[in-house]
């Protein structure tokens, strides 16, 4: 089976360097960016402005070589972890996922807030966040992740995932 993903747009953010940027949206709560949707897909934005938050699915276009083990930014023990237990960019398909606040939609430009995404990142898809679908109720587990919300907010990237 062969399949193909299409780039539907591009993120324009203030982050032009992979080093020293937030590593999760919680660390970028007041950062704004825009997504320029290709004109061919503009009609798909209809009715999106009724939602407060959206999921962005994007391509980590700066990843050169995926890895199956990584040391994540928020791991206090600096232990190599299986990539599928992390949110690092080094996954085999290099797809990113963020929940961001939707500020406005004007023609083919989507303004978002809470952005931890590199400038020029290709957008693969947008989906609305719907609490009745997406909110996890009851007991949850966080595996190796022990960082507090404040630690996550303060954490900035270093060069561990930058190809030299």
Folded structure, characterized:
- This protein has 164 residues and is mainly beta.
- The protein has a single domain, classed as YaeB-like (Elongation Factor Tu (Ef-tu), domain 3).
- 6% of the residues lie in helices and 27% in strands.
- The protein is built from two helices and eight strands, in the order ββββββββαα.
- The protein has helices at residues 131-134, 149-154, and strands spanning 9-12, 32-37, 53-59, 69-70, 81-82, 95-106, 109-113, 122-128.
- Strands 1-2-7-6-3-8 form a six-stranded antiparallel beta barrel. Strands 4-5 form a two-stranded antiparallel sheet.
- A hairpin with a 2-residue loop joins strand 6 (95-106) and strand 7 (109-113).
- The longest helix has 6 residues, at 149-154.
- It is globular, with a radius of gyration of 16 Å.
- Using the CA coordinates, give the radius of gyration: 16 Å
Tally the beta strands.
Answer: 8
- Kindly provide the name of the CATH class: Mainly Beta
Number of helices: 2
| Largest sheet, strands/sense/barrel | 6 strands, antiparallel, barrel
Mean pLDDT across all amino acids: 88
The CATH H-level superfamily is YaeB-like
Q: Helical amount among residues, as a percent range?
A: under 10%
Overall number of structural domains: 1
Tell me the fraction of residues in β-strands, as a range: 25-35%
Shape: globular
Descriptive labels:
about 160 residues; mainly beta; Elongation Factor Tu (Ef-tu), domain 3; 6-stranded antiparallel β-barrel; two-stranded antiparallel ribbon; 2 helices; about 5% helix; about 25% strand
């Amino acid at each position: 089976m062969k399949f193909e993903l299409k780039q539907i747009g591009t993120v324009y953010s203030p982050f032009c360097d992979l080093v020293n940027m937030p590593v999760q949206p919680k660390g970028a709560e007041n950062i704004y960016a825009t997504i320029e949707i290709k004109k061919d897909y503009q009609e798909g934005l209809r009715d999106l402005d009724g939602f407060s938050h959206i999921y962005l699915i994007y391509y980590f276009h700066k990843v050169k070589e995926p890895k199956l083990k990584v040391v994540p930014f928020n791991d206090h023990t600096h232990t190599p972890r299986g990539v599928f237990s992390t949110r690092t960019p080094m996954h085999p398909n290099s797809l990113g996922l963020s929940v961001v606040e939707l500020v406005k939609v004007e023609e083919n430009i989507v303004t978002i807030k809470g952005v931890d995404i590199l400038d020029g990142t290709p957008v693969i898809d947008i989906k609305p966040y719907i609490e009745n679908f997406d909110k996890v109720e009851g007991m949850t587990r966080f595996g190796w992740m022990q960082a507090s919300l404040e630690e996550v907010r303060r954490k900035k990237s270093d060069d561990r995932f930058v190809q030299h």
